[in-house]
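[retry 2/3] Inositol-1-monophosphatase: previous attempt timed out, resubmitting with same input.
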Amino acid sequence: MTTAHTAPDPESLRDLAVRVAAEAGELAARGQEGVTVLETKSSPTDVVTRMDRVTEELVRSRLLAARPQDAVLGEEDGDTAGSSGVRWVVDPIDGTVNYLYGQLDWAVAIAAEIDGVAVAAAVNVPRRGEMYEAVRGGGARRNGEPLQAPPAVPLAEALVATGFGYSAERRGRQAKVLTEVLPRVRDIRRSGSAAVDLTGLAAGRFDAYYERGLNRWDWSAPGLVASEAGIRVGGLHGEAPSKDLVVAARPELHEALSDLLAPLGADTDG
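[retry 2/3] Inositol-1-monophosphatase: success.
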């Protein structure tokens, strides 16, 4: 537990996250040309590039240089213990397949959590020139400007972003769910990056988002940005976000989308 006299200022954590995400994004953007697959993880479609590893190494080194007692949870190098009560949750390149193919929609995502709750975040989408930041209770910003998601629309008029898992079995199940969702919404979008989807939702590029199989580093930082912009980020019907399902939308639309997804078993593999 973080004691009162040692509790860090979330704004200072946010400022550190922004600085590190900016540097990491520049590094990754320079390294995108000519990048190749280093290895695969859970399946042949779950790829890691050399730049994923190099970028996470940079992020870890900068965070721990500034705050050596903090813990770090990163996608590539796992969990490093700390004693301060602060844990950084890092996705060095969210949207690695996009990155590998030279596309624009990938992001560096860094969140600071205290007692398991995200209190500060930065999400850098370098190829689009967008830096998102948030402090719990202090709002969200994009490139320094306050960010507020637009009002909810009816489910039938909602542009819904989603993503798919890496295993063939899960993809097949998600495709079946999608065939039931698509006729009941305006349309579907697939960016290939949860961080881009959630920050895009905060910016009004989508009306809602759902995805099964996300890890904490996928949604911690962009989820705080979305929440501080007025989006409800959770699971079905008030549950916390988890690997089972993340659903994000304005509160009224969140309920309607949850009502649609729950009987379809969108939070299961069938």
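[retry 2/3] Inositol-1-monophosphatase: The helical segments are 10-31, 50-66, 96-100, 168-181, 194-202, 216-228, 251-261.
[retry 2/3] clearing retry counter.
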